[in-house]
From TrEMBL:
It comes from Microthlaspi erraticum. SUPFAM superfamilies: RmlC-like cupins (SSF51182). Fe cation binds at residues 74, 76, 118, 120. Residues 192-301 form the Pirin C-terminal domain. Belongs to the pirin family. Keywords: Iron, Metal-binding. Residues 9-21 have a biased composition (Low complexity). Residues 41-139 form the Pirin N-terminal domain. Binds 1 Fe cation per subunit. This is Pirin N-terminal domain-containing protein. One of its GO terms (molecular function) is metal ion binding. Its cofactor is Fe cation. The keyword Metal-binding applies.
């Protein structure tokens, strides 16, 4: 069975000596599209305008209704998936025997490594929940980590580190804020912060100088970077790419509506290696992709247990 991550973790230290703001250099609106089995996603990274933002492969804001929609049995190799539930809950199952429910506010950080086949579907025991919404982020792995054993880090909502100061509330998914650290270890050094700013409040968040970073707005409207910048104002479902050359993001809730501003700030150390993607497989060369397809089709080199496996959700819905 995949194990919880215990080692090979790199610190996502957010401090440096520069004193410049990060500016917004690109703004994208995440439009709805259909994915999986009756699911709807708003994809902001991994679309034609932004195929790859090293080390980030995909960012989806997903929405699935119970019980007949979701993401049934499918494979992964060569990267990590981070699932963060905003509403409702999702049942996760894999071919290695790992099974669990990711509930509202909870987190699953899955290292697919050398290979996993799994499903992500609404829980059949959702106690009347009919709408399930969350974020899924795909983070690339360096060549030395692409074929590690699959593993999971799972944190319930009540156990996610939180902090609050001067009208700013932060949930620390990865990295740290104001001295409060996440429990998550990251193979690819990553920060992932969920900010909620009350009306009129602002935050200045350090970002390592050479890391790529972005903002995705979940609720409300705010200013990011420099108010004089062309793309500085953004509202719900917008992705903001932050330029290099600065060591911090400044953001403030500028809405006149009296509503909070909620957004995620995600940053990561670029891997800087060749990347070849074929759907759910991400490797460094086309030859490695060809080998991965062969391994998956022949149930070898990490996919052995997928030969006779079908998820409970797929069986119940009569899929495959």
């Amino acid at each position: 069975m995949p194990t919880s991550e215990k080692s090979s973790c790199k610190s996502s230290n957010n401090s440096n000596n520069n004193n410049n703001k990060r500016l917004v250099v690109k703004k994208l609106f995440a439009r709805q599209q259909h994915e999986g089995f009756g699911a709807v996603v708003r994809r902001s990274i991994g679309r034609f305008e932004l195929r790859y933002f090293d080390p980030f492969l995909v960012l989806d804001e997903f929405s699935v209704s119970s019980p007949a929609a979701g993401f049934p049995d499918h494979p992964h190799r060569g990267f990590e998936t981070v699932t963060y539930m905003l509403e409702g809950e999702i049942l996760h199952e894999d071919c290695e025997g790992h099974k669990g429910v990711i509930r509202e506010g909870g987190l699953q950080w899955m290292t697919a490594g050398k290979g996993i086949v799994h499903s992500e579907m609404p829980s059949s025991n959702a106690n009347g929940i009919t709408h399930n919404k969350g974020l899924q982020l795909w983070i690339n792995l360096s060549s030395k980590h692409k074929l590690v054993e699959p593993s999971y880090q799972e944190i319930e909502s009540k156990d996610i580190a939180e902090a609050e100061k001067d009208g700013v509330r932060v949930r620390i998914i990865a990295g740290e804020w104001n001295g409060v650290k996440s429990k998550i270890c990251t193979r690819t050094p990553t920060m992932y912060l969920d900010f909620t700013l009350s009306p009129g409040s602002r935050v200045s968040q350090p970002i390592p100088l050479h890391w790529n970073a972005f903002v995705y707005v979940l609720q409300g409207q705010g200013h990011f970077g420099d108010a004089r910048s062309q793309h500085s104002t953004a509202a719900t479902h917008h992705l903001l790419i932050l330029g290099l050359g600065g060591d911090r993001l400044e953001a403030w809730n500028s809405s006149d509506s009296g509503l909070p501003l909620r957004f995620i700030l995600v940053g990561g150390e670029p891997i800087g290696e060749p990347m070849v993607q074929y759907g759910p497989f991400v490797m460094n060369t086309q030859e490695e992709i060809d080998q991965t397809i062969d391994d998956f089709e022949n149930f070898t080199n990490g996919f052995e247990k997928a030969r006779h496996w079908k998820s409970q959700a797929a069986s119940t819905l009569g899929l495959f």
